[in-house]
Write a structure and sequence with these properties.
By secondary structure, the chain is an alpha+beta fold. It has two domains: 30 residues; 121 residues, Immunoglobulin-like (Sandwich). 21% of the residues lie in helices and 43% in strands. The chain is built from two helices and ten strands. The strands form two sheets. Strands 1, 2, 4, 5, 7 and 8 form a six-stranded antiparallel β-sheet that branches. The chain has a four-stranded mixed β-sheet with strand order 3-10-9-6, with no helix packed on it.
Amino acid sequence: MKNFLLFLGLISIFSCEKEFAQIKDVVNEKKINTVVLTIDSTTKYKSDYDWFSVASNREYNMSTEFFFADSLGKMENLTSIIKENHTVKYEVDSVLGFKINILDKTSNGQPLGLLTNFKTSKANMGNLKITIFNTQSCTNVFEYTFPTIVATP
């Protein structure tokens, strides 16, 4: 009888590990692999492009969305997940001469970072780094850098 109970216990332990592994695999399959920046509701820049370009001496509104794109090109929008316990941070190279202002807030009043604006000044080249920060674990969970051009119109 003891062996039978031990056998049942081992089966339940291994089945839990297997279930956990399957859940973990599903989560890992849905990693963000595409970032879309929409400028003034019309121009879209995807992270699979090599650069992000705007004109100098202009003000822009920008929205940021995060997607999982599968091998067939089907895209699943994961932005709603970001709204839960995350903020989006932006780091702009100083040579670009602009700062991104966050316009939206989380449910607890913290800056969210999906809706922003910025004003460019001089023409130059640099980088725009986007980071998703988990506010509960205090860790960066995603980062992508867009090579950026501020061009003379």
